[in-house]
Write a structure and sequence with these properties.
Order of helices and strands: EHHEEEEEEH
CATH superfamily: START domain
Strand content: over 45%
Number of domains: 1
CATH class: Alpha Beta
Structural class: alpha+beta
Number of strands: 7
CATH architecture: 2-Layer Sandwich
Shape: globular
Strand order of the largest sheet: 1-7-6-5-4-3-2
Number of helices: 3
């Protein structure tokens, strides 16, 4: 089977400062609250958020989080840039991988968050669509969380 690839760019205006967005994007508990779309969950197994650190997560439908994700932090430059890789497994087989770059910049009404996600699927092109839908849904959750945090401040 061939390897299918794509790159997605997402930009969102957020109502929080870059420092506060950094916390939402990099804190393990915060990522669990926004990182999975819709009725899916993201559960942290191990967390080591530092350059070179490896984290393990389980994600998927709440009743069966079948995907295991290994996240490796490559670059952390608070509050502006976070870069990590993800290796996704299901049933003991690696189904895909990604390189994710978050950029956070101060803006007039808060900050601008840009996520660039380069993905490779090892199980066919339909996995690319799943990657994209997952990131779109997760970023919708991140926007809602940022709005809620701004309103409670």
């Amino acid at each position: 089977m061939t390897t299918d690839t794509d790159t997605f760019h997402f930009t969102r205006a957020m109502p929080l400062s870059a420092d506060r967005m950094w916390h939402l994007i990099t804190d393990t508990t915060m990522r669990e609250s926004w990182g999975a779309p819709g009725d899916h969950v993201l559960e942290t197994i191990t967390a080591d958020m530092r350059v070179g650190g490896v984290e393990r997560h389980r994600c998927g439908p709440a009743d069966n989080p079948e995907f295991e994700v290994e996240t490796r932090w490559l670059h952390l430059d608070a509050p502006g840039n976070a870069v990590f890789t993800e290796q996704i497994e299901a049933g003991g087989m690696t189904v895909g991988a990604s390189l994710v770059t978050f950029r956070i910049a101060e803006a007039d009404a808060g900050s601008t968050v840009t996520a660039t996600v380069a993905v490779s699927s090892f199980v066919g092109p339909e996995m690319i669509a799943e990657f994209k839908a997952g990131w779109e849904g997760g970023l919708v959750n991140l926007e809602k969380l940022a709005k809620s945090e701004a309103e409670s401040a």
